# Entry
Amino acid sequence: MLIKRPKSSEIVLASDITPQAVYQERRAFIAKMAAGAVAGGAIWEMANREAFAQGAAAKLAAKRNPAYAILETATPFKDATTYNNFYEFGLDKDEPAQSAGRLKTRPWTVQIEGEVKKPMTLDIDALLKLAPLEERIYRLRCVEGWSMVIPWVGYSLSELIKKVEPTGNAKFVEFISLADPKQMPGVGSRVLNWPYVEGLRIDEAMHPLALLGLGMYGQTLPNQNGAPVRLVVPWKYGFKSAKSIVKIRFVKEQPRTAWNVSAPAEYGFYSNVNPNVDHPRWSQATERRIGEDGFFTKKRKTLMYNGYPEVASLYAGLDLKKNF
Ligand code: MTE
# Structure
């Protein structure tokens, strides 16, 4: 987020080569469309069927929740999985896709502790079964000024929070990512104090929009996108959505989050998407939608709370310039 470096190397992904099964599925889809069997509506599905079929990960059956599915074209799968911020795997956008393959995502456990009546350690299968999986199509706006539209698979974080029964002292929730130098070459760098830590106020964490992400594009999360479990908080800048989480801690005090510790004047605790409050080094008024970047393509206007006004009541009376 802070550092600019020259691009490393060009890569060819396995997903660049269309496997036979994908080809056949695509043919079947085209035939269905021609027969008029596919109803309109889901814009992204049409536009991204091809991309959707790529990737080797396991399929995740999930029912789309129309209340949480914006009707904007989803970012092609290839862009969403090759243009990533995951500093544990390097600082360049293409590095996570190149080196996150080595991350072992099974077995995987998430420890839930702190101010809760029922602390527990859940493995990834238990998390996949904890609540019905939903597909939600959310905007993701990075603090750097770009955005994507991603069909996530998961359920409201509140489902998990209810299970552990927070005590009255639980005012904040802290999310801690894996930091394993053996698997994550970037953890040797000094850009951040590892592990990556993020946090939410308990009422933010309980908001139904806050998603525990277990998949995207109908399949398990690719490693570079935060496998096997991550946070997705669509009304906040992307860095609040911690990847590859191993610990969730309920605490009394506001957590010291990784980016806030590293550059407190630039990255606040709240980090709500806000076109009226600029980053000290750049404007936040507009954004570049990944996949739309032609020479003449106009930037999009960034929306307050990233276009999720339903969260505004969480911040009633709060000075959003001071609490950026
Ligand atoms: N989580 C960890 N553990 N490490 C990171 O470097 N980067 C954040 C966030 N979560 C990051 C992280 C940032 S800056 C963004 S914009 C999003 O992940 C990007 O998510 P995506 O790669 O799935 O688009």
